[in-house]
């Protein structure tokens, strides 16, 4: 897995994961969560791929039960915001880290890693 460093460029490449799908959410420990999403990759002629995220140092989260993942509206994609010491990830379009906490699904953590995979 690679560390997520340039959030804006990453979200632009995947069109902020608009109209994507959350495949699974898997808590590994109290401070590590894996999330898998589908995305159209702008670097690959918009082919669909899978992106697996690993959230480490989780300090706060609001997760959704697996049975309800297919009902999450991903039309607005995701928002990832960061400051000098924390990342905030949430479903929907938000303008601030504080706003992300209004999402029905969010994770606040110390770092994010990702891995690209086959659709």
Please specify the SSE layout and strand pairing.
Elements: E1 2-3, H1 7-13, E2 22-29, E3 32-41, E4 47-56, E5 60-62, E6 78-82, E7 87-91, H2 97-100, E8 106-109, E9 111-117
Antiparallel strand pairs: 1-9, 2-3, 3-4, 4-9, 5-8, 6-7, 7-8
Plain-language structure description:
The protein is mainly beta. 9% of the residues lie in helices and 45% in strands. It has two helices and nine strands, in the order βαββββββαββ. It has helices at 7-13, 97-100; strands at 2-3, 22-29, 32-41, 47-56, 60-62, 78-82, 87-91, 106-109, 111-117. A five-stranded antiparallel β-sheet has the order 1-9-4-3-2, with no helix packed on it. Strands 5-8-7-6 form a four-stranded antiparallel β-sheet. The two termini are 17 Å apart. The mean pLDDT is 95.
């Amino acid at each position: 897995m690679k560390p997520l460093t340039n959030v804006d460029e990453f979200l632009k490449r995947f069109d902020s994961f608009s109209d994507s799908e959350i495949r699974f959410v898997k808590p590994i420990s109290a401070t590590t969560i894996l999330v898998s999403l589908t995305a159209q990759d702008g670097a690959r002629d918009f082919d669909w791929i899978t992106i697996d995220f690993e959230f480490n140092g989780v300090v706060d989260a609001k997760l959704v039960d697996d049975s309800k993942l297919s009902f999450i509206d991903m039309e607005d994609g995701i928002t990832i915001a960061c400051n000098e010491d924390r990342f905030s990830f949430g479903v929907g379009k938000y303008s601030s880290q504080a706003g992300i906490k209004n999402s029905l699904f969010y994770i606040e953590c110390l770092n994010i890693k990702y891995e690209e995979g086959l659709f």
